[in-house]
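Re-run requested by the PI after the first attempt was lost when the workstation crashed. Everything re-entered from the original request form. Ligand of interest: 3-hydroxy-3-methylglutaryl-coenzyme A.
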Amino acid sequence: MTMPSHVRVVEVGARDGLQNEKTLLPVAIKIELIDRLSATGLRTIEATSFVSPKWVPQLADAAEVFAGIAKKPGVSYPVLVPNEQGYERARAVGAMEIAVFTAASEAFNRRNINASIDESIARFEPVLARAKADGVAVRGYVSTVLGCPYQGEVPLADVVRVAKRLHDLGCHEISLGDTIGVGTPGKARAMLKAVASEVPMAALAVHFHDTYGQALANILACLEEGVGVIDSAVSGTGGCPYAQGASGNVASEDVVYMLHGLGVRTGIDLDRLIDTGAWLAQQLHKDTASRVTRARTGG
Ligand code: HMG
Ligand code: MG
């Protein structure tokens, strides 16, 4: 067992969380969310997404949100970018870290970004070249690593190939996404192991949606394999609007509670995170999906 002593939690609630919520939050509330999150000790907070506003109207205000957040020294605020147009919009407001995204499944990619895997990577190439010249760090997402809503099974070899390609192209970190939350711990572990045979474990992150209630178990299996970066969303919000049946990300509060219980350091103040999760649920007029926040707030 190679459990890390410290884990970096990548908070994706303001992006993955809000992109799939029915309630459209005002810009000021999104900014307050991100500023509250940066006060919890989180070091990486995905802020928004510069995709087509026709495809994801929830994040059409990306530029205003990004411009309005109080950038805390030592905290990075990556933003999603699907193409050069997104890159230009992100750079216009000063983004210094971006995330590109593709999938291990052709069928999902077609629905999500209207492109094949190869076409999506061809779109990223100029983005990565410009990012390198501009000193912008790039994260890469691989979706549907444990199953696809349209294709079903996703061969491990496809996950490994796409992850390696993104890493070879210059992505400093590859986040492996179980987009529809169908994975189970044995499969999650085998998937991570297979990718880690081609991409260094230090460059890998895991990204679980909790559709089938397996996310924490999957994360534990991956921690035991040595992964040191975990994506999660405060209050367990979100999901991908173009992945049929996808539900929220694993809740950050639940991940941090588990990590601290395991003696793994995160640098995050759990109480502040719980307050933020409870506050966000109120803003969205829904119950929190975090079991920890429910337990602590009686909600
Ligand atoms: P398209 O329709 O094929 O693109 O969409 P296009 O190049 O033909 O452009 C169509 C229109 O969009 C044009 O406008 C463009 O200007 C505009 P029009 O001429 O019709 O007025 N456009 C843009 N506008 C603003 N910003 C841009 C941009 N690009 C084009 N960047 C495209 C292709 C990729 C743009 C579209 O499919 C898209 O935006 N998809 C995003 C879908 C999405 O955001 N999904 C959720 C994120 S992925 C996810 O959640 C998974 C993850 O969490 C990991 C996991 O869980 O597995 C990361
Ligand atoms: Mg996701």
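Saved to the shared folder this time. The CA atoms of residues 109 and 115 lie 6 Å apart.
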